[in-house]
Amino acid sequence: MIRDITLGQYYRGESFIHDLDPRTKIVCTLVYIIMLFIAGTFWGLAFSALCLGVTVAVSKVPPAFIFRGLKPVFLIILFTFVLNMFMYDGKIIFELGFLHVTEEGLHKAFFMAARLILLIIGSSLLTLTTRPIGLTDGIESLLKPLNKIGVPSHELAMMMTIALRFIPTLLEETDKIMKAQQARGADFETGNIFSRARKLIPILVPLFISAFRIAQDMAMAMEARCYRGGEGRTRMNGMKMTAKDGVAWILIVLFAAALICERILLA
Fold first, then answer.
1. How does residue 231 score in pLDDT terms, banded at 50, 70 and 90?
2. Which residues contact 259 (CB under 8 A, 6 or more apart)?
3. What is the pTM of this model?
């Protein structure tokens, strides 16, 4: 389960998506997420899924690797599905005590689950095809206009990227701790979900210690390299928009326009 989390990982490759400017990918991802909430029908979600499928194919990231990232959030998706299934009134399909499942509730449950799956895959594709340093530079560049009102864009971008980048590192540390405790007789596999959750509590103390150690080592490494924030810093490889980015901007605008029209026509 721990190894299945792909959020924050970078998949090395050469593709049209990998070559895009980080700012283009960040904005396109944000637009895609917003459009998922604007889509009001299954036709809109189907169109979004088709566009995402084409993007995944162009990125050359193995679909199995991407779908593996859905395993850790399966319970969240299932909870969302069940919650929506019982929340809407309408034509009753069957009753379970004081609970009843309706056609409208079932429709909404499938709709919300599909939306959540597309949101997770679309967000994961951003980190899978963008190097951490590129992600930092892209976020900082997009936030730079906020410097005029006192918002530290560089520091915010650095914090966000470090937090995202260290998700795989902390997961690897968690996996090592679990294996070490299993070698000493700990059992994390048997029992119900609540029992297994309680068994994970002893992992938290060594994990927090390891996280603080990693943070301290990183802080010392940054100080040793005379890091003093973003003011006056230059980049060896600057960001530059290319014709590929122009194509991506046109495609995302067409995608957004199609979903907005779909929402207006079917409203």
1. low
2. 35, 38, 39, 44, 47, 48
3. 0.76
